[in-house]
Recover the amino acids of this structure.
DNA sequence: CGATTGACGTACG
DNA sequence: TCGTACGCCAATC
């Protein structure tokens, strides 16, 4: 059964997995991911994972992950100060004053979309 | 090896 | 209602 079980080495792998699953034109929050992983209070780790994501070979759409307020807090960490905003706008979102307009409208909750029940076995 | 930091979130005053 | 303090876990200095 281990084969079926992804046995994510840890918190980070899960974060990357979920982040990669974020559909085009959608965004999510660190807290949502953290909660999906079962560690709602460890939202900080999600941010750390994003920081480490730059070293990953896999492409991690970190620009689709924002804070609870829908603010592009991590945009400063991108190669360009406006890269994150540009990417989101390219996906059809509207960024105003570094804040996503209608954030909840584009919000993508992994707990709902990914069916947490499935992860129980996978 | 110990202390600090870190792309957040929640609780409390 | 707004501002400040604390907690989470891992990585870095």
């Amino acid at each position: 059964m281990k084969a079926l079980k992804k046995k994510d080495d840890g918190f980070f792998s899960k974060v990357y997995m979920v982040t990669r699953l974020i559909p085009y034109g959608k965004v999510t929050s660190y807290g949502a991911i953290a909660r999906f992983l079962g560690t709602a209070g460890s939202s900080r780790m999600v941010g750390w994972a994003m920081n480490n994501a730059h070293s990953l070979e896999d492409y991690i759409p970190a620009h689709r992950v924002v804070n609870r307020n829908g603010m592009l807090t991590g945009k400063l960490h991108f190669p360009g100060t406006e890269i994150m905003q540009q990417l989101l706008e390219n996906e059809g979102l509207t960024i105003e004053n570094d804040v996503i307009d209608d954030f909840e409208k584009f919000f993508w909750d992994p707990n709902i979309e990914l069916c947490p029940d499935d992860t129980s076995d996978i």
